Amino acid sequence: MERADREALDIIVALEQVIFPEDPWTPGMIADELDSPFSAYFLAILEPESGDDDSPLEVVGYAGVKVVGDGADVMTIGVLPEGRGRGCGSQLMETLVDHAELQGATSMFLEVRASNDSAIRLYERCGFARIGVRRGYFRHPVEDGVEMARSLSPSVR
User: Highest mean pLDDT: which of 92-96, 134-138, 141-145?
Assistant: First the structure.
């Protein structure tokens, strides 16, 4: 995992359009998130399998969290099809949890499309529990959002 900064904008925009084609965030929305002092974004990078040091690294996913006070919100998390099933989603979520705990958050929340069973299973494996449903939360297409939350153990600074 690598912390993303404003220089990663084009990479994240490209990932967003492939991972969430039905309703991608605009470049401006992503730039605002990258610039926010409350947000942190991370890239999932796969090492070349061949062992060839000259092969380029492959960015296969990204995730972002916003921490305000003692609450953290998963703003987005997504992995390209070629990165799925390789632990990238779990590692991204673990990175978000670690960051939120370092910032003093005691709880973390997210919303996920009700039809996204694989994501819901991932979040449950990462300690999240369903706490509610937001009717019509997602657009393009309109769909309910499942609200999920988990407790965190904030680090003492």
Answer: 92-96
